[in-house]
Specification:
Helix content is 36%, strand content 21%. By secondary structure, the chain is α/β, with parallel strands linked by helices. It folds into three domains: 228 residues, Rossmann fold, CATH 3.40.50.980; 168 residues, ANL, N-terminal domain (Rossmann fold, 3-Layer(aba) Sandwich), CATH 3.40.50.12780; 128 residues, ANL, C-terminal domain (GMP Synthetase, Chain A, domain 3, 2-Layer Sandwich). The protein has a five-stranded parallel β-sheet with strand order 4-3-5-6-7, sandwiched between helices. A five-stranded mixed β-sheet has the order 12-13-14-15-16. Strands 2-1-11-10 form a four-stranded mixed β-sheet, sandwiched between helices. The longest helix is centred in the C-terminal third of the chain and has 18 residues. The N and C termini lie far apart (60 Å).
């Protein structure tokens, strides 16, 4: 394969030389302005910053931290770090000061680039004394040791530094649904393997457009936006904020898009807020009008130019995929982890199999252990956890297979189905094991349930903790409450009818509080922190279970 051995910086230099004036990064600025940066602009700025970084005369392989929401200069700073021979350490932009300090100290970062942030003063306290800060062009109010403009005063480096394939490129600290984050080490070869194979898989081209909105510090966005753009040459548009997200999406009209299930659900809920689900479903069934309606809905979301729509990072309800299919958009489920560059399995276009994720991506070997755990091996497998040989040994088998922590099975055509996280499977007081994820997916088909977490460790029967959508919360507060309750009771009956006796839910608990990143219930990639959910409500579990009511409104 042509690009298999080509490393990220080599690909950058090639694009820089081949189409220097082609638009690469499109950054919204305050006041409604747009900044467009070409490949030569990006290369020039990265080279100037790399020159300044070299003047620090840090040892090769020194760690440089990067904390910012997604923006053009996140990618440029990352490239500069690599050009200077250092290792980038991205931090989530909403970390607490304590969490930021934990990562900065553990990685022994020598410098921090600081970009777009909502609450820098709260995080700044986590920067250990002696670590200098450099403000990117879009930065918060606050004191910084240097600004990007000062780095740009340097002359650009004249050479094309090319780190060795086995040289460490980055340490990605997992967001972690439980416990302290681990530093996943990836070298340039890992990135090259995943990006080059992915490029082939999606037939990506220089005409493609992507919108960058999930945290770039997360492996999915890093691969699907940063690395994929370097290898495929697509234009990257950035979202300005959550408030402007739909405007940003319509501006970009992406041809490729990766989203976590919560994002695709949010789109659906937004559509339902404007048109009742039953009416839309009726219209979509009409022979000719249905297709027109579907296209109109997609155009209203900015999704009408989509070639590949991907969903991953958490279990995806089948009903959600089916809904988009009826609109005329095939959303393909993908599966991967930080530990393998997010590169493992994907559904192929036109070959999706209901209830199954898809087949292994090119170059990925799969086997199922005796315990039912999915094991994968490829050139994208991490080098290990930084400073943690014990956890590395636990995660990677002697023959190089990565333990995913997911239970699963393969069919005769090598399609993969996940049946739950090994650590999430709990035992009821009757001694029966329950995997919560499949049950949660059955409940998530309801148009008024936005988030759900099934619990039941040590309880006679499981319970489902549910957060209603905005429309659902509105209905609960007005005359529609009775109809909503009837619909949810019917859902519970239907779901329980499809479950084994020990899995059946004793009731749905309807919570007032919405789970969000800000209140600690979700990871930055919008996964539910099961331990936080359980810890918050555990004191009420017995009381709710004893009530044996189909619906319990949390007061």
């Amino acid at each position: 394969m042509a690009n298999a051995a080509r490393l990220p910086l080599e690909m950058l230099y090639e694009r820089e030389a081949r189409h220097p004036n082609k638009r690469y990064l499109v950054q919204p600025l305050p006041g409604g302005q747009l900044q467009e940066l070409s490949w030569s602009d990006v290369g020039d700025q990265a080279r100037r910053a790399a020159n300044w970084l070299r003047t620090l005369e840090l040892p090769q392989g020194s760690r440089i931290a990067l904390v910012s929401k997604n923006c053009a200069h996140w990618i440029i700073a990352d490239l500069a770090i690599w050009m200077a021979g250092y290792v980038s350490v991205p931090l989530y932009p909403n970390l607490t000061a304590d969490s930021a300090r934990q990562v900065l100290e553990h990685s022994e970062s020598a410098l921090v680039f600081v970009g777009k942030l909502d609450d820098w003063p709260a995080m700044a306290a986590g920067v250990p004394e002696g670590i200098r800060t450099v403000a990117l062009p879009l930065h918060p109010e606050g004191q910084f040791d240097l600004h990007w403009s000062e780095l740009q005063a340097c002359t650009p480096i004249r050479d094309n530094p090319t780190p060795a394939a086995d040289q460490l490129a980055t340490i990605i600290y997992t967001s972690g649904t439980t416990g302290a984050p681990k530093g996943v080490m990836h070298n340039f070869s890992n990135f090259a393997f995943a990006a080059a194979h992915g490029l082939q898989l999606f037939e990506s081209s220089e005409e493609d457009r992507v919108l960058s909105y999930l945290p770039l510090c997360h492996v999915a966005e890093r691969m699907f936006v940063e690395l994929a753009s370097i290898y495929g040459g697509q234009t990257v548009f950035f979202a300005e904020s959550l408030e402007t997200f739909l405007v940003d999406l319509k501006r970009a009209r992406p041809t490729l898009m990766f989203g976590v299930p919560r994002i695709w659900t949010k789109f659906q809920m937004g559509v339902y807020a404007k048109m009742p689900a039953a009416r839309l479903d009726f219209l979509l069934k009409l022979p000719i009008l249905g297709k027109l309606i579907g296209r109109k809905v997609l155009a209203g979301l900015g999704l009408d130019a989509m070639r590949y729509a991907l969903c991953g990072a958490a279990p995806v309800p089948e009903a959600l995929l089916d809904w988009y299919q009826r609109l005329g958009l095939e959303v393909l489920e993908v599966y991967g982890m930080t530990e393998n560059c997010g590169y493992s399995h994907i559904c192929r276009k036109g070959n999706a199999k209901v209830g199954w994720i898809g087949q292994a991506s090119p170059g990925v070997e799969v086997r199922i252990s005796e315990q039912g755990e999915v094991l994968v091996r490829s050139g994208a497998t991490m080098q290990g956890y930084y400073k943690d040989p014990e956890k590395t040994a636990e995660a990677i088998t002697d023959d190089g297979f990565l333990r995913t922590g997911d239970k699963g099975e393969q069919d005769a055509d090598s399609y993969l189905r996940l049946t739950g996280r090994i650590k999430e499977i709990f035992k009821t007081s009757k001694g029966k094991y329950v995997a919560p994820a499949p049950i949660e997916n059955r409940l998530a088909v309801h148009s008024r349930i936005e988030q759900v977490c099934v619990v039941g460790d040590g309880m006679p029967q499981p319970l489902a903790l549910c957060v209603l959508s905005e429309v659902g919360r509105q209905e609960a507060a007005n005359d529609s409450r009775a109809a909503l309750e009837g619909s949810l009771k019917a859902l519970l009956e239907e779901v329980n009818g499809a479950l084994d006796k020990h899995e059946r839910l004793s009731g749905l608990i309807l919570l007032k509080e919405v789970w969000a990143v800000d209140n600690g219930f979700l990871t930055p990639t919008l996964k539910i922190k099961r331990n936080v959910v359980e810890g918050t409500y555990a004191g009420r579990f017995q009381e709710w279970a004893e009530r044996r009511e189909a619906l319990v409104w949390h007061d």
